[in-house]
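Justification of computing resources. Each target in the renewal requires a structure prediction run like the one illustrated here; the chain below, 228 residues long, is used simply to show the kind of job we budget for.
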Amino acid sequence: MRHDLRTLDDAGSVARIGAALIADAAALAVEARGGCTIALSGGTTPWAMLAELAEQPLDWSRVAIYQVDERLAPDGDADRNATHLAAGLAGLPVRFEAMPVTAADPDAGAATYAATLPARFDVVHLGLGADGHTASLVPGDAVLSVTDRLVAVTAPYAGHRRMTLTYPALSRAALLVWLVTGADKAAALGRLLDGDAGIPASGVEASASVVLADTAAAGSRGVAAGAP
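Resulting structure tokens:
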């Protein structure tokens, strides 16, 4: 699919513009339909983006937040994306649907979570790994072939099994917002922009996609961009 690349000076700018872009899409959804659905990934730059997003003047009571993926770890664990999301959303009247990764049967937990998902996401935020993964769709994992489920559980990756939205779930996005920072992501970003099917991230399809990258990640492909 086509990605709209916007290059920014640094990770802080990526976080700030990412928050503004998501907030604008959310406000339009609330105005048009009375509610907004957003799926968020984890990571250092995304937590900075979440802090910016929480300051946006949205009608948060009309916003539902879902997780793109999560590690199978105990509640409150520092490795859990939900731990950071809950902290970032604290005090906001938002509905937060955390993945049930502590379920005795993770596959059953994945099915339970799938049943909570909306028919469409107004915005899905994604990251990009140096190995070309996004969400917890990682190279070589059987989850890449899942087409009959919206949520699935992966094999161990970087120390944890994960629960993740699958390609069919991500395709429900009206807008994808990718935050990509750091020189170690430059090669993977180039492959994503080229539509290289050899990396999992290129398998994501949606109605529209904006990639916000810092200059280190964008490299020679970057063209300076202003606010959305």
